[in-house]
Automatic annotation (TrEMBL):
Location of the region described as Disordered in the Swiss-Prot/TrEMBL record: 249-270
Gene Ontology MF terms in the entry: protein phosphatase regulator activity
Pfam families assigned to the protein according to its UniProt record, in alphabetical order: HEAT
Renumbered ranges of HEAT repeats: 115-154
Gene3D superfamilies listed in its UniProt record: Leucine-rich Repeat Variant
Keyword tags: Repeat
Protein name, as recorded: PP4R1 phosphatase
GO annotation, cellular component aspect: cytoplasm
Lineage: Eukaryota, Metazoa, Chordata, Craniata, Vertebrata
Protein's organism: Certhia brachydactyla (short-toed tree-creeper)
Superkingdom of origin organism: Eukaryota
Amino acid sequence: EPTVRTELMEQIPPIAIFLQESRPKFPAAFFEYLMPIVVRYLTDVNNQVRKAGQEALLILLEQDLVAQSDIENKVCPILLDLSAPDSDDDYKVEAVNIICKMASMLSRTTVEHMLLPRFCELCSDGKLFQVRKICAANFGDICNAVGQEATERLLIPKFFELCSDSVWGMRKACAECFMAVSYTTSPEVRRSKLSPLFINLISDTCRWVRQAAFQSLGPFISTFANPSSAGLYIREDGTLSIRPSAQDVNSNSFQPSNNVTVMSSSDNAA
């Protein structure tokens, strides 16, 4: 029964946490018995079971319960198979979604060598606009996961494609994550490539794209600021913050400043 498998998946994370805390008594139980079940259920015929398996996997990754070898030898290969060009549409959409979500939880080397090439392919998927939409919505997170060099070499050309996509929802998603993409690039790329691209979005024929671009204008401009002189910097959680001046720190009267929340690509994807 699918409901039984779904309920089973929901119990996997707490069982895994228990096993981690009792590892001297159960040294290999999770890796030998539970992890194979999670991987297998990612390809279950029932949609709810697959969804439960995906949620369980993300929790396990977030809690750092999955060994690096299992990530590279078991999880990534199955996601690459599910996101292949000839894969079933539903499986492909689910696979690209989980690839984007897990990118921030994996090492930069794993993301760049195992997942980034497939992500770049999916950005140009001509069959399913839903796949391209997920890529566009999570583009900033992928850039942050792989860093400046890979972003400028591999991802920026794909970002240009998505910003010119014929589907206006794609261009809107790009406008919404523009700050996160810009923050990962060098000042020269920001000035020479991203600025003209942003002007195109802010002049787009679709008013929803223009509105999203105008909402991202301030955050995008903030990425040009020199933190040492402007006092502005981007936290790892995607918030724009104000760094206190030396005078304020020395006066001992400094009160923590409020953070200006900037929507990240993952927020907009929801």
